[in-house]
Amino acid sequence: GRFPVLNRGRNLVGIVSQRDINRVLLRELTREVERLESAHKGVSVGTDEGDRLYMLCEYPVMKLDFENAGKAANEIKLLLRDRQVDRRIARRIAVAAYELELNICVHSEGGTLSFVVANGRAEITARDTGPGMADVEWACRDGTSTANDWIRSLGFGAGMGLPNTKRVSDTFEISSLPGKGTTVRVGVDLHLGRPAAASTEDGA
Fold first, then answer.
1. Chain centroid, CA 198 distance in Å
2. Which helix (H) or strand (E) holds 103?
3. pLDDT digits (tens, 9 = 90+) for 57-108
């Protein structure tokens, strides 16, 4: 849809589209990812509260269901807030969940987003049913996307989903088979300051 922009005199001064709104939200999300990436380095919290926390959730994600896209990530964020998880960690987890949820919605035939917290660690697993990717390394580069013009016109498919997910996660694993589907698994330690493990990318 399109929305009129009025000044204080109620004169029309412009038109804002849904694409404009999504573009601004995406830009702000990318800035937040970059801020989180630099902020969490070298910070230490001496608590074992995260080790006693346990959660298990799974959410279906439908192809091109933009009306509900992001709801799973928002629910995860609220769950973490209710459990009083450090807000910096919770924000990183929410960003990763949002990006992976949108990836399933935009680029796949549908799938599931699973969220598990156990032993002081949060893990998000995104599984879809296809179409899969032949070049996983290419898909993880900034700005690469297979989204069509219609999806881009809605403000999605900018090619930052996997790179942003990788930036806010302590561990990142991806595997994909053309014609079969893609699985992305990321981990975030609930204790700030722990060293991040290396990521793995597998095209098989």
1. 19
2. helix 87-107
3. 999 999 989 888 899 999 999 999 988 899 999 999 999 999 999 999 988 9
Closest CA to 69 of 171, 161, 191, 196: 161
Q: Taking the model in full, what pTM does it have? A: 0.67
CB atoms within 10 A of CB 169: 27
What residues contact 96, with CB distance under 8 A and at least 6 apart? 124, 164, 165, 168, 169, 186, 188
Q: Which domains does the chain have, with CATH numbers?
A: 52-202 (3.30.565.10)
- State the Cα–Cα distance between residues 87 and 76, nearest whole angstrom: 12
- Chain position carrying tokens 């995406």: 26
Selection from 155, 132, 158 nearest residue 143 by Cα? 158
Burial per residue of 93-131, b for 16 or more beta-carbon CB atoms within 10 angstroms, e otherwise: bbbbbbbbbbbbbbbbebbebbbbbeebbbbbbbbbebb
